[in-house]
Every structure is written in structure tokens, then in C-alpha cells.
Design brief:
214 residues, alpha+beta, Arc Repressor Mutant, subunit A, Muramoyl-pentapeptide Carboxypeptidase, domain 2, 2 domains, four-stranded antiparallel sheet, three-stranded antiparallel sheet, elongated
């Protein structure tokens, strides 16, 4: 697996770009044999390229749903880059409440963030943790998958990237409240930890999360 690959690395190969184009044009889920035929590559080579696209978050894979006996095929489907997906979901849930009466924009954004957590994990729910250490590992993996680039900093987590950075700088009180709600919603699904405090844009570039046991 190539979990550390980013979008630019994954698309540096013409073959991987061609595979992604086939998946985009088809709009559905295809097997490795179909994709190999479409781009004129050996199946094993195609599978390696697909692994890298999966690792970069550009392609999703899942077993084929079957009603008969036999080993299901693995099917591949194009997915939006994680950062774009976070932006799209956050835009949708924030705009859904636009124009409604509210006591506090921050509280409304926090609720929208929790709804965003539900949408972002609907297809791929996080594991349920059995210990705080496991919860931290799962939570960190989820944040990485969503494009926040988390790094350990003692007991805290530093988020080194924001998928909506320009918007966060313009309306930090709303966007950061939405992100707090989203991360609290993720932790509710994972269990064993909760969000105690966030320090947004602590050094002008990154945010810090403090996690505690309930």
C-alpha cells in the first residue's frame, strides 16, 4: 500500500492518469481486468497503479456485492480528493442553515460540523475504539484521510493543513466552530476520547487539538 502518496505524486504517471480518466468517464465501479483492457496494461501493473491511486485518496475500492456463491471481485470507483470532499460537505451544511434565525452563528456552525461528520463517514465509518490509545490512532487516521495532516505534539494533535484554509482565515469564528463540531462528531463515533480544547491558527498556520478521556 502507498498510504503516503499525495495527489500530485499519484498523477505523475500517465498510466495512472489514464486509469483515473477511465473511471471518471464511466462514472461507476470497474474491475481490474476491465481497467487493464481499457488502458492496455497488464493486470498486475494495473493493480499496482490502482493501489497508488487508492493510497492518494483518488480512487475507492470495495468488494462486489454478490447474491451467488464465489469470491467477489474488487471494484474500483473514482472519488473526489479528500480536501475537495471536505470543502463540498462543509459548504453544503453551512449553506443549508443560511437565512435561518439563530442565536449564535458559532453554535449553528458547530451543529453543522457534526452533521458534516455524519456525511463524511457515512460510506466509510471509523472503527469503534477499545482504549484511549486506540481512539487516538483511529482519530488521527480519520483526520489524515480528510486532509488535515495531523501530527503528534505531546498529548495534543497539531493539524498542519486545513482543507478550507482561505475561508477559515476570512471567517475563523464560523469555520473553526464547524470544524470543532465535525471533530467532536468523529470522536463520538470512535469513543474513548473527547475534544477538550482547540487552539485555531495558533502560529498563523496550524491548529492544535487537546483530547481527554470522558
Amino acid at each position: 500500500m502507498h498510504q503516503g502518496w499525495d495527489e500530485h505524486q499519484a498523477l505523475a504517471s500517465r498510466s495512472r492518469a489514464a486509469l483515473l480518466e477511465v473511471l471518471r468517464d464511466d462514472g461507476g465501479a470497474l474491475g481490474v481486468e476491465e481497467l487493464a483492457d481499457a488502458v492496455g496494461l497488464h493486470v498486475n501493473t494495473t493493480r499496482e497503479h490502482l493501489d497508488r491511486l487508492v493510497g492518494a485518496g483518488l480512487v475507492a475500492r470495495a468488494p462486489e456485492h454478490r447474491t451467488t456463491r464465489g469470491r467477489p471481485r474488487i471494484l474500483y470507483r473514482r472519488r473526489e480528493p479528500v480536501g475537495a470532499r471536505v470543502r463540498a460537505v462543509m459548504d453544503e451544511v453551512l449553506l443549508a442553515g443560511y437565512g435561518e434565525a439563530m442565536d449564535s452563528p458559532e453554535e449553528a456552525a458547530n451543529r453543522a460540523g457534526r452533521e458534516a461528520a455524519d456525511r463524511l463517514t457515512r460510506e466509510q465509518p471509523p472503527e469503534r475504539a477499545q482504549s484511549p490509545a486506540e481512539a487516538r490512532r483511529i482519530f488521527k487516521a480519520e483526520l489524515d484521510r480528510l486532509g488535515f495532516a495531523p501530527k503528534d505534539e505531546g498529548d495534543d494533535l497539531r493539524l498542519c493543513h486545513c482543507p478550507v484554509e482561505s475561508l477559515a482565515r476570512a471567517r475563523s469564528e464560523v469555520v473553526c466552530a464547524a470544524h470543532r463540531g465535525m471533530m467532536a462528531g468523529l470522536l463520538d463515533r470512535i469513543g474513548e476520547l473527547e475534544l477538550a480544547e482547540t487552539t485555531p491558527l495558533q502560529d498563523g498556520e496550524t491548529c492544535v487539538l487537546r483530547l481527554v478521556t470522558p
